[in-house]
Amino acid sequence: MKLGRITGKVWATAKDPKLNSLTLYVMQPVDEHDKLLGTELIAVDTVGSREGDLVYWVGGAEATFPFHDRQIPSDATIVGLVDRLDTQPDGTA
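Given the sequence above, the corresponding structure tokens read:
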């Protein structure tokens, strides 16, 4: 799993029917110190995220695992909200 910060919401008037009833967010991957990693992604939300939330997410084939009843066209899925993140004083996680 990876960390990400929700930076926006996607509004779509037309999308693949397999994505109906699912919320899409713009997410910036970050490290454990909230430093930006790579470029923003569009991610399917499964936990009720909101803009500004720190989340953990999965990518690739694992992005479809939370949807047992259907196969979705997604490469990134938000699977949890981060309530607290503790790191060691020396900067290691």
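The domain at 2-81 is CATH 2.40.50.220 (OB fold (Dihydrolipoamide Acetyltransferase, E2P)). Try to locate this feature in the token string yourself.
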